[in-house]
Design goal:
The protein is an alpha+beta fold and 381 residues long. Among the domains are: 210 residues, Alpha-Beta Complex (Lambda Exonuclease, Chain A), CATH 3.90.320; 56 residues, no CATH class. The strands form two sheets. Strands 3-4-5-6-7 form a five-stranded mixed sheet. Strands 1-2 form a two-stranded antiparallel ribbon. β5, α5 and β6 form a beta-alpha-beta unit. α5 packs across α6, α7 packs antiparallel against α8 and α10 packs across α11. The longest helix has 30 residues.
Length: 381
């Protein structure tokens, strides 16, 4: 499968894509290595999208390529639009590189070796643009569930190190621009580091964490990096992290101090996610035959459904009734039908976005803060 890091037919212990986890929690690498890889439909969809992106970009660069469209299981107009947008974005970055370096080099799906800092460390960069002054590393993300930020992104920094290793002696590189291109979230995130800053991070953060992780040593640490950990459901450190909330004894909010409420807010989302993971783990174990004290497997609620919708429609029509519910497609479905470009062309002036429901989020969230009536009153006075 594309983009899986393989060493001697096995997945690399310390991959760039999981670096955010094993840097924060070094011993988790060994535990995850013992678990089977499970590729979701979302991962397979992402693989198809990357294949199409590679083809589209190579076409614009005049490179030899084969159109993979007919072999893609998840191809649709949205994927085509996303790949086009990615290829066009990359070409703009190529032109920016040529403004300062006539010998700008563009590498597509380039293997990048950062084993100087991470044992057997290598990965595949979607696009690397090499030029004097600025080295550009671009990564395409097709996912829509998680917004990916380039700032201090360990995966991108590992790729940047690999690219720097290849071309540092050939080009006069002073800085590295790392960009996440995530079209289905309208997210283009760029993080720029000087060469010295990147190498300092590699020596002081990446390399020490990799040495610990390779030996299965270091401290367990729970946090947002647990999201894609294979052993997150049974991890004791994660349990301790979330069970800290129990010391508040689920008191009535009005009896808690502001500081206590702020602590609970900072952990509430992680606590909910952890509880969901525990329930899913227990269910899968029960399906495999494990008996949990006080619990049993039952058949969940199921809704009735038609065996054959076409036959149902014909039966109802022959009886003189209209079996269809006629309504305009929703915006997401309409965008997939028309494609993003055609959608904007035809319907751009007919779309409005009402104000979203107020949500309390950490200050690190990049969305602008809302103005409340109370705050406006205070400003006026």
């Amino acid at each position: 499968m594309r983009r899986c890091l393989v060493v001697a037919n096995k997945h690399a212990l310390l991959s760039a894509s999981s670096s955010h986890r094993w840097i924060a929690c070094p011993p988790s690498a060994m535990l995850c290595a013992k678990e089977k890889d499970v590729f979701s439909e979302y991962a397979k969809q992402g693989t198809d999208a990357h294949s199409l992106c590679e083809h589209k970009l190579k076409c614009l660069l005049g490179m030899e390529t084969c159109d993979p469209t007919e072999t893609l299981d998840f191809f649709d107009q949205e994927m085509a639009d996303s790949a086009d947008a990615y290829a066009q974005f990359v070409m703009k970055q190529v032109e920016a590189g040529k403004e300062t370096c006539k010998d700008t080099l563009v590498l597509v799906e380039q293997k990048l070796d950062f084993s100087r800092w991470v044992p057997d460390g290598f990965g595949t960069g979607d696009c690397v643009i090499v030029a004097d002054d600025t080295l550009r590393v671009i990564d395409f993300k097709y996912g829509v569930g998680v917004l990916v930020d380039a700032e201090n992104n360990p995966q991108m920094m590992c790729y940047a190190l690999g690219a720097l290793q290849m071309f540092e002696g050939i080009y006069d590189i002073s800085s590295i621009a790392m960009t996440i291109f995530q079209p289905r979230r309208d997210n283009v995130s760029t993080f720029v580091l000087s060469k010295e800053e990147l190498l300092k991070w590699a020596e002081e953060v990446l390399s020490p964490a990799a040495k610990l992780a390779t030996k299965g040593e270091g401290e367990f640490h729970a946090g947002s990096h647990c999201q894609f950990c294979k052993v997150k459901a049974i991890c004791r450190k994660r349990a301790e992290y979330n069970l800290e909330l129990a010391r508040y004894d689920f008191a009535v909010p009005a009896s808690l101090t502001d500081e206590e409420i702020e602590i609970i807010l900072s952990k509430a989302e992680a606590l909910t996610s952890w509880a969901t993971d525990i329930k899913e783990y227990a269910l899968q174990q029960a399906l495999s035959g494990k008996a949990w004290n006080g619990y049993k497997l039952v058949e969940g609620r199921a809704n009735r459904k038609y065996i054959n919708e076409s036959a149902v429609a014909e039966k109802v029509k022959s009886a003189g009734f209209d079996p269809y519910d006629h309504k305009v497609l929703g915006i997401t479905a309409m965008t997939k039908l028309l494609g993003k470009t055609k959608f904007e062309e035809l319907l751009g002036g007919l779309i409005e976005k009402p104000q979203g429901k107020p949500t309390l989020v950490p200050m690190s969230d990049k969305r602008p803060a809302m103005h409340t009536a109370v705050n406006d009153f205070k400003e006026e006075n």
